[in-house]
Design brief:
It is a multi-pass membrane protein. The protein is mainly alpha-helical. The protein contains 15 helices and no strands. It folds into 2 domains: about 190 residues, MFS general substrate transporter like domains (Growth Hormone, Chain: A, Up-down Bundle), CATH 1.20.1250.20; about 180 residues, MFS general substrate transporter like domains (Growth Hormone, Chain: A, Up-down Bundle), CATH 1.20.1250.20.
């Protein structure tokens, strides 16, 4: 009888892992499918850069406002209904984003899209932490690696369909069909429960949770810097043709994806603290190489090192969030993710302001200092 129970537990855990991987993949696809639609929204509505920026701000506002509720809802109803509901809302919003021209309706759609993405992001990370703890193994890097794979697949599929002449709405509907089929496959093994129910909906991060949030802020800020400023730096400082300047972020993203897909074995071998320490140093050295050495090949190498260094830091931080006892996970996880989102949303703007008053090289040099801080702070994760 004991053997049967053990076998059932193993099968359940395998199913939970597989479903968690599918949901991370789905989240990456949904998030990246939106990116190729942004310039089409701009052209369709006639918005200038300032107006588009205000419209896109709704995504960030919706995400950050919704995240604390995700912790409460997963604790109250379980991960499964929150993940399913938020994914279905995202699937409903994507077609609207592909063809709406009425600005108030478009703004509301972007807000709801951001809120649903924030809810899904929190819920899948809560699920991943529970599944990892139940398994007794290191799994976070692999989960986040599937998110990166989904990002590449979603952006690539949307770009391919649009470049072949398919209209935005049919292109989006093709992806939505894939997402819904994947969700149907994953749903049975999503967790019908969440974290503890005790505790407030909102809580100010403190102690180790505050540290984890700050470190997430820095890593996400670095990702935002690569997304928004690497192409600008290559074109303006390294004389790379603008049409090829996107290679900078491509090198960063490819190295990050590869690092995450191989990260679980690395974390198991070296330990989370050592991975964060070495990762912060690797990312800082990579950024320094891109800034100090002339020529765009050195910058591309540097960006790849930044991606490799950052790849497993956030997964280790989420694992640490699952172990900490300072705050309930239902409030700790949303707080940490919200600080990370703030980094990717606000960081590039801060870099732009610093560059305005000094230079882009100096502004990006500040990221080197922040990454070294991440490396030095890693030893505190034992708490």
């Amino acid at each position: 009888m004991t053997g049967c129970t053990s076998s059932l537990t193993i099968r359940e855990n395998y199913g939970e892992r597989a479903s968690t991987r599918i949901i991370f993949l789905i989240t990456g696809i949904v998030m990246s499918a939106w990116a190729p639609l942004v310039p089409l929204v701009k052209a369709r509505t006639g918005l200038d850069e300032g107006g588009l920026g205000l419209l896109l701000l709704g995504f960030g506002i919706g995400s950050i406002v919704a995240m604390p509720f995700a912790g409460y809802l997963t604790a109250r109803f379980g991960c499964r209904p929150v993940i399913i509901a938020s994914t279905l809302v995202l699937c409903a919003m994507l077609p609207m984003l592909s063809h709406l021209t009425w600005l108030p309706g478009l703004a509301l759609t972007v807000l709801l899209f951001g809120a649903s993405m924030g809810m899904l992001d929190c819920a899948i990370n809560i699920q991943s932490i529970i599944v990892e703890k139940n398994s007794g193994e290191t799994l976070q890097s692999g989960f986040h690696g599937l998110y990166s794979v989904g990002g590449i697949a979603g952006a690539g599929a949307m770009t391919a369909m649009l470049s072949l002449g398919l209209e935005p709405l049919p292109s989006v509907l093709c992806l939505v069909a894939i997402i819904l089929a994947s969700l149907y496959k994953a749903a049975p093994n999503l967790l019908p429960y969440g974290t503890e129910r005790d505790g407030p909906i909102f809580a100010v991060p403190r102690g180790i949770v505050l540290l984890l949030g700050v470190l997430c802020f820095i890593v996400f800020l670095t990702e935002g810097a690569m997304l928004d400023w690497s192409a600008v730096f290559l074109a303006s400082q390294r004389d790379m043709p603008s049409s090829y300047a996107g290679l900078g972020y491509a090198c960063f993203a490819a190295a990050m994806t590869l690092g995450r897909l191989t990260g679980d074995a690395l974390v198991s071998r070296l330990g989370g603290i050592r991975v964060v320490t070495l990762g912060g140093i690797c990312a800082a050295v990579g950024m320094l190489i891109s800034l100090v050495f002339d020529g765009w090949p050195a910058s591309l190498l540097g960006y790849a090192l930044v991606g490799a260094g950052c790849s497993n830091i956030v997964p280790v931080l989420f694992s640490a969030a699952g172990r900490q006892q300072r705050m309930p996970q239902r409030t700790a996880i949303p707080a940490i993710i919200s600080m990370g989102y703030a980094g990717i949303l606000m960081g590039p703007a801060f870099i732009g302001m610093i560059a305005h008053f000094s230079s882009l090289t100096i502004a990006l040099g500040g990221v080197v200092v922040l990454l070294l801080f991440v490396s030095c702070a890693a030893r505190l994760l034992k708490a």
